[in-house]
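User: Can you fold this complex?
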Amino acid sequence: MTLAIDVTGLNKSFGDKHVVQDVAIQVEEGRICGFLGPNGSGKTTTLRMLCGLLTPDSGRGTCLGFDIVTQADQIKRRTGYMTQRFSLYDDLSIAENLEFIARVYRLDRQRERVDAALEHLGLASRRRQLAGTLSGGWKQRLALASATLHDPKLLLLDEPTAGVDPKARRTFWDEIHELAARGLTVLVSTHYMDEAERCHEIAYISYGRLIARGTAESVVAGSHLVTFNGEGPDIGRLAHEIAGRPGVETVAPFGAALHVSGTDRKALEAAIAPFRREPFHWQAAQPTLEDVFIHLMGQAEDNWPGGSPP
Amino acid sequence: MNGFSLERVHAVLVKEFRQLVRDRLTFAIMLLIPIIQLTLFGYAINFQPRHLPTAVLAQENSRFARAIVAALKNSSYFDFTRQVRTPAELNALVRRGEVQFAVTIPGDFTRRVARGGDAQILVEVDASDPSATGPALAALEALPEQALAHDLDGGLAARGQGAPPFQVVVHNRFNPEEITAYNIVPGLLGVILSLTLVMMTALSVTRETERGTMETLLATPLEPIEVMVGKLAPYVLVGLVQTAVILVTARVLFGVPMMGGWIGLSLGTALFIVGSLALGFLISTAARSQLQAMQMSVFYMLPSILLSGFAFPFSGMPAWARAIGEAIPVTHFLRLVRGAMLKGQTLGDQWRELLALFAFVCVVTALAMARYRRTLD
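Assistant: Here's the predicted assembly.
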């Protein structure tokens, strides 16, 4: 196997804030890696270091076989980067934006590529429309088309589907899988658990540290988390009473049910024992990725002096 | 309608004040600009310019000639910076703008004073800026009465009585009718060009940063110099069109003469446009928002208007203010434009200003390239 991304010991500080601490990421060629973590955990900073937009304070490694410190130019040319915020030109038309990108990368067959991208997007008939007037979902698809116009080998996507409706997200992810099937490596940051589950593997970063890595199943299994599913009337009150009991690490309502999780099975069972009665029904459940992440977030050491991250 | 609530006004007021104080640069500029400009311009600007550069061509080395030079010097309006030997030299100094006045004392001056009646000295004036020379010319009027007062002794004592012993012939050059517009309109070319061009590029890069499109640009293989040249080129065209419009208007509406020096003027215009745009680009690498870019552009514009010789006579300013003025491209461009339109300067007269503009372009471009960040660090 070949690693498209292989970096270790990445560090980056802004002022006295150590935003990324000793992060190591390996992603195999042609795989989709989901990059997860709470707000302000250093995901964007890591992505920017990988594509040369930020210089790491320390750390080494390669992207697509090029050194991330000394060969950033080579990486830039072969990488597509999609920013969190729409960063194409609102006052240029859809086609003009793509033409600009095609020229900047000095692509061959520019007209052909732009036409193909428009055709693929289904925007051929709206090519003269200003990009700023597109809806959120369309903007993201246009941004993806522009980030892949130069046939990159690596795609870095920073929360590409934030604020996009479920159907548009579905379409977007279908495209990402299509691209991966053609051999592209994708590193995509997200907050959506359903998206995380659509990735080949995930990396979880919290307060600047990478704390879990692997397939969704292995991360769930590796957490050694035990979850019980409780059902009954007045779940809100039940949650209130159970939270804080020894052995209970997270309590999360899911509709009419309650997910109670902890790593110590015995202590957890003891905690819910008083409530194992009518009208409540309990059963052991498979922890979801979300249970695991909330658990991981609680565990992660807080390196922000002020408490919560900015 | 909710009526008028002082409490709600207070809410807005407090928010506004907090935001104002938080934007440190804006706050600093608001406090510093008045102080800097008050002291700078308060001391620099002088409506009664003295110590104007003057050249003298004394075709006789006589007591009288020395007395006249001494009297001119004593008036404090004239500083004799150059001593020349031929009328051609004198002429060149005036045309290049190195001196504002050229005094010629003819070879038969003493003889004519002694004979009485027709002694003259010639004062040629660079009248392209009438406001610079006006007070000095007024001071010249008393010269014939006083200059030779101590030297007319012995047999010539009688010459001190009655009619003055000699006359001063004043010859206004380049703008003989002292029309202010002839001076202001060419100057406006420089001021209008820098006003629009500096701000345009200053905003164009900060706009990318503000809208987030800078991130896209930085993620592409674009080199800083490519971004700069690509961004500046369209505005060079804008600047050229503006120049053409202003020149045509100057000719048609104000009848400003166009004496020549076209090659130098064209070169200078190109350099000045590029220099102004590059300066705007440099500003945009320092400004964090379009507002800041705008404030910095204004900060640059004030000395460009006040210390460049546009609004006030350059030669009337103290040395330190002239030194600041020399660093501003508008100063050199104004000299070029006025020189070409009013004096018909040739490349031989213009090369100094061209060199200054070229140096400005190089320095500012180098600074902009050094400051332009290729990353988001």
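Residues 138 and 168 of chain A are 8 Å apart (CA to CA). Residues 302-310 of chain A have pLDDT under 50 and may be disordered.
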